[in-house]
Specification:
CATH class of the largest domain: Alpha Beta
Radius of gyration: 23 Å
CATH topology of the largest domain: Purple Acid Phosphatase, chain A, domain 2
Oligomer: single chain
Low-confidence stretches: 1-51
Number of strands: 23
Largest sheet: 7 strands, mixed
Structural class: alpha+beta
Number of helices: 13
CATH architecture of the largest domain: 4-Layer Sandwich
CATH superfamily of the largest domain: Metallo-dependent phosphatases
Mean pLDDT: 87
Length: about 500
């Protein structure tokens, strides 16, 4: 039976508190309990400030289910409704924070639908509703959410954008507005005021090779637990450092176990991507020994892995080094009002793969880049200096050519050896790079690293939790980093 930790009674506003609670195996609260993150003082001053009731009203996540073909958006405080309305979308994103119920200082935002096209528009007054009806939209739409009509210290203007067929989109940031403008949408001005959802989490899975042997159910238990607790952390992405399996067999049984675990994420439409370790390739034979033949060449044979986890399975995939292979790939998503990239690199990557990664990062200067590669840190936290005997380049080469060279690389996650370690480096542009080792090779548990990020307050807090045991690891894997300058 899954042990589900309770939410906070009140969400902490300081990372030190968040870290302490995580270490005690208590998890962050859901969106209904989160304080506005527009500033570090908002949560403590909102009740006393003149706009306090307005600030407290903007605490519910408003999800946007966006159809990527038509650009149409379905806004609601109900995640499931946003997901079912646009099944072709990669999954609903959090657009901003408003209210699911009437609050002082807020007004109903009514959803309207064009019965001819199925497209949506939104109205806050009878005049707006009448104008939309004249354009062919139906009055039968329901309540999308309630939003503030006046500015406050904790709120920012949200602009209404009108599409070529009269449909509406809301932009809570300048970057989002610029993207809509580039696609031919028209800015109709500020429609209401809302809070930015600046705090969210990602999950990093360590080597799971011991979890796929036999009928332990630990891998699937972990991913189901992540799905069931996604709202506690506002979980936006799940990644894996590699060695998803221990070795392959003719019946691909271990891949089948991993596949079933990933099905949980698929069904919940949580974006994820799995890295590739040496055990996921044809370099490792049953029992863990090296397979006959050229080990270096076998290391690059990832056909079975890519059959189970092809690029098409990642809803956030944005580019590949080689067609049909996720070995070297990058995946993008938006969270905390900013853009993020998860960049996967093969084990001890080929020089060409590193050069490709350099071009990708250089082309996305406004993305916060998270590098994931199987082997990077040694057990003692130092950067590995060799290629393992059968790789192409070393982790030090990866640091010298990629990690240290770009101002928007913020985090590096790896596994392969040891249990947990943390290292801090400074890139050539003066940017801080945090590298985190999470391996474990646990034969009884299912450790999971959670990384909570706050883009407004500039920090991240992380720790390792074992869902099966219902407890956090007290092994030095928990820490908080403050004064982080996230890329905007």
């Amino acid at each position: 039976m899954l042990r589900k930790p309770p939410p906070f009674a009140r969400r902490a506003t300081a990372p030190a508190v968040a870290l302490a609670v995580l270490t005690a195996a208590v998890l962050p609260v859901g969106p209904a309990q989160r304080a506005s993150a527009a500033s570090t003082t908002t949560a403590t001053t909102a009740s006393a400030a003149p706009g306090g009731s307005t600030c407290r009203a903007a605490q519910d996540q408003v999800f946007a289910g966006v159809d990527e073909q038509s650009g149409d958006a379905f806004y609601t405080t109900d995640r499931a409704a946003a997901q079912s309305e646009n099944p072709s979308a990669r999954g609903p994103a959090v657009a901003f924070l408003a209210s699911s119920t009437p609050r002082p200082g807020s007004r109903l935002v009514r959803q309207m639908t064009d019965p001819r096209t199925g497209l949506h528009a939104y109205a806050m007054s009878w005049r707006e509703r009448a104008a939309l009806v004249a354009q062919g939209f139906s009055r039968a739409g329901g309540v999308a959410f309630h939003a503030a009509t006046a500015p406050a210290e904790c709120l920012a203007p949200v602009h209404r954008w009108v599409g070529p067929q009269g449909q509406h989109r809301f932009a809570a940031s300048e970057d989002e507005g610029e993207r809509l403008a580039s696609q031919g949408w028209r800015d109709a001005g500020a429609a209401f005021y809302a809070a930015q959802d600046t705090r969210f989490s990602i999950a990093v899975l360590p080597d799971t090779q011991e979890e796929v042997i036999g009928a332990t159910g630990r891998f699937e238990q972990r991913t189901r637990w992540l799905v069931e607790n996604r709202d506690h952390w506002d979980l936006r992405y799940v990644t894996h450092v590699g060695d998803v399996v221990n070795w392959d067999t003719p019946d691909h049984r271990q891949f089948e176990v991993a596949d079933a675990a990933a099905d949980e994420l698929d069904a919940a439409r949580i974006p994820f991507s799995f890295g590739i370790g040496n055990h996921d390739t044809r370099a490792t034979c049953p029992g863990g020994s090296a397979c006959p033949g050229d080990v270096a060449a076998n290391q690059r044979d990832t056909r079975t892995f890519n059959a189970y986890f092809p690029p098409s399975r990642s809803t956030a995939v944005a580019g590949l080094h080689e067609a049909g292979k996720v070995d070297n790939s990058f995946h993008t998503f938006e969270a905390g009002g900013q853009e993020w990239m998860v960049l996967h690199l093969e084990l001890w990557p080929r020089a060409g793969a590193v050069d490709w990664a350099r071009s990708v990062v250089a082309a996305h200067p406004h993305h916060n880049v998270v590098v994931v590669t199987h082997s990077y840190l040694n057990a003692d936290g130092s950067i590995k200096q060799d290629n393992g005997g059968y790789g192409s380049t070393s982790p030090q080469h990866l640091y010298d050519r990629l990690v240290s060279q770009y101002a928007n690389i913020r985090l590096v996650f790896s596994g392969h050896v040891g249990t947990t370690a943390h290292r801090v480096d400074t890139g050539v542009h003066g940017n801080r790079v945090d590298s985190v080792l999470t391996a474990y090779h646990d034969r009884r548990g299912n450790p999971t690293r959670l990384v909570e990020i706050d883009t407004a307050e500039g920090w991240f807090s992380t720790g390792v939790h074992s869902p099966g045991a219902g407890e956090a690891r007290s092994d030095g894997s928990s820490f908080t980093v403050r004064d982080v300058r996230w890329v905007r």
